[in-house]
């Protein structure tokens, strides 16, 4: 079998500890042990210019709150970017970005390295999206306090499509949001009756043709 290439996911944030905890558990943790993926969190303050390691400043034109500066994002990306010739994508987390989908997860799983940029405060200097990032993603129509959860959401969804990350038990087949835009059919496990809630008879029938037809009928289209 050809050796699988290690995929690297770098997260630039002012809260690196938020990333390492999640990424070291369960499927992502095992995928790191198996050298399928490598998730690294970096402290943006390491690339700040001044001695106070300041990463934000007041917005030009006035307004409330603070804006994250462009320079430490640019230096950070330059420092963590992998070798020449590798496929790298730089992703800004942004409440106003395009909505991240399963299709994006599948597409981004083919890159050797993804670099995620996490904003905080009132957001990020617009020059980061214009000149440093390749694309900007929102994970949904709501505003979070920072880009760390969005970065983890995207890493989790992308990593599941990296060969060897999911074991045989956690197959990608027959999941929601397939290429055909289907959602998964309802799943049941033991006991057959709980309180008065019973599992549909067809699933207990042992008739595989009938079961398949029932599942097809139950699976809904996403659009
Ligand atoms: N003022 C910004 C606005 O109205 O769009 C919101 C800034 S938010 C408080 C701070 C950071 O959290 C953003 O720069 C972004 O990195 C991240 N963020 C918040 N909501 C997000 C979402 N739905 N998807 C992706 N990133 C998000």
Automatic annotation (TrEMBL):
<keyword id="KW-0819">tRNA processing</keyword>
<dbReference type="InterPro" id="IPR016009">
    <property type="entry name" value="tRNA_MeTrfase_TRMD/TRM10"/>
</dbReference>
<comment type="subunit">
    <text>Homodimer.</text>
</comment>
<keyword id="KW-0949">S-adenosyl-L-methionine</keyword>
<dbReference type="Pfam" id="PF01746">
    <property type="entry name" value="tRNA_m1G_MT"/>
</dbReference>
<keyword id="KW-0963">Cytoplasm</keyword>
<comment type="similarity">
    <text>Belongs to the RNA methyltransferase TrmD family.</text>
</comment>
<protein>
    <recommendedName>
        <fullName>tRNA (guanine-N(1)-)-methyltransferase</fullName>
        <ecNumber>2.1.1.228</ecNumber>
    </recommendedName>
</protein>
<dbReference type="InterPro" id="IPR002649">
    <property type="entry name" value="tRNA_m1G_MeTrfase_TrmD"/>
</dbReference>
<keyword id="KW-0808">Transferase</keyword>
<feature type="binding site">
    <location>
        <begin position="139"/>
        <end position="144"/>
    </location>
    <ligand>
        <name>S-adenosyl-L-methionine</name>
    </ligand>
</feature>
<dbReference type="GO" id="GO:0005829">
    <property type="term" value="C:cytosol"/>
</dbReference>
<dbReference type="InterPro" id="IPR023148">
    <property type="entry name" value="tRNA_m1G_MeTrfase_C_sf"/>
</dbReference>
<keyword id="KW-0489">Methyltransferase</keyword>
<dbReference type="GO" id="GO:0002939">
    <property type="term" value="P:tRNA N1-guanine methylation"/>
</dbReference>
<dbReference type="GO" id="GO:0052906">
    <property type="term" value="F:tRNA (guanine(37)-N1)-methyltransferase activity"/>
</dbReference>
<dbReference type="InterPro" id="IPR029028">
    <property type="entry name" value="Alpha/beta_knot_MTases"/>
</dbReference>
<feature type="binding site">
    <location>
        <position position="119"/>
    </location>
    <ligand>
        <name>S-adenosyl-L-methionine</name>
    </ligand>
</feature>
<dbReference type="InterPro" id="IPR029026">
    <property type="entry name" value="tRNA_m1G_MTases_N"/>
</dbReference>
<comment type="function">
    <text>Specifically methylates guanosine-37 in various tRNAs.</text>
</comment>
<feature type="domain" description="tRNA methyltransferase TRMD/TRM10-type">
    <location>
        <begin position="8"/>
        <end position="220"/>
    </location>
</feature>
